[in-house]
Amino acid sequence: MKKNSFWEQTSFLEPYDLVVIGAGIVGLSSALFYKRTHPDARILILDKGFIPEGASTRNAGFACIGSITEHVADMAKETEENIKNRIVLRYKGLQLLRGILEDENIGYENCGGYEVFTSTQQFEEANEHVPRFNKWMTELLGQPDVYTADTLNGYPVIYNRLDGALHPGKMMQELIRQVMTSGCTIRWNSNVESLDELGNVTLSNGRTLPADQLLVASNGFTKRLLPDVDISPARGAVMVSKPWSSIPWKGTFNHDRGFIYFRNVGDRLLLGGARNIDKDEEEQDSFGINKKIKDHLLNFAKDKLQLPDDIAFEYEWSGIMGFTPSKTPVLERLDDHRVIATGLSGMGIAIGMKVGKKAAELLDDKG
Q: pTM of the entire structure?
């Protein structure tokens, strides 16, 4: 005997063509693109949070293709081909995001980005690589003279003219609006307990939903559902100050291979990162602020950014990212019913929509 009402079973609970797990930028983008090519498809997106919960609305709002020292650090562990492919993915991903959602809807600012050096030696070492990476940008993107050396507020910097900033909350609101307008359904506060190879999703309330296809787009929380996938959660801290009338830092900035980042949000200073200070402790999928990291960030702001003594931080939060060993996202079909698109490795804004588009294409290919 069925426990659901006849009305529920023949409306809300009919089998879905696609169930997406995770209402972040990848999950929502994949649903949007899949719906465009399958307008009659019945699509459900599930998220465990009251609003998108993970990194999509809890990041720092950087829209960037990568700094010189980030590329150099990656070259120590990866091939040039992989790094070049990722630069192209980030650049084209940002173009796709801006084209679909439109700059005014996401608060996009074409402000450029600065890599700030507090060591002359480290700056000189990085500056030696500028010609090489400018050549890459010309060849890969058709964009000459992307990186230039300069000084700012007494520090040597390398400026990247392609970088920008946006408002992650507005970005996700617009993406949600487009997804819902397309005819997809989003269910919040719907924690997925398990899934199987037949396409069945079981929620923590015990309800099971059948689907022809499942897409796992849960990024830093992926191991809760698929423990064998090689993705490590990574917690990132972000703080935003109270208004500061004479803020000297306008634009987006990064330091120490991108581990520390800061930017102005109007007349406020956003400061975050430094997870490398306590990397092992930050490889977790529970929200919270690490005091050791917070102190490190505050000392950096005081000692290097000349933060005034009376400035205070009004907001602090953490986001959960998902990293792969090579920083390349995991995008693959597991079986006839399940596809995985996850492991954005801290580049969700830049590559998330592009990965979602590729996931939609993979859903179309059932072999």
A: 0.95
HSE-up of 364 (CA within 13 Å, CB side)?
A: 14
Identify the structural domains of the chain with CATH numbers, from first to last.
15-57+169-230+326-364 (3.50.50.60), 112-162+233-323 (3.30.9.10)
Q: Residue 252: its pLDDT value, please?
A: 97
Pairing type for strands 16-21 and 185-187 reads unpaired
Q: Where are the alpha helices (DSSP H) in the chain?
A: 6-9, 25-37, 68-75, 80-101, 103-106, 120-127, 130-141, 168-182, 279-282, 291-303, 348-364
List C-alpha distances in Å: 367 to 75, 133, 215, 240, 363. Answer: 35, 39, 16, 48, 10
Instruction: Give the list of residues 6+ apart from residue 319 with CB closer than 8 angstroms, or none.
Output: 54, 55, 58, 59, 235, 236, 238
State yes or no: pLDDT of 1 exceeds 80: no
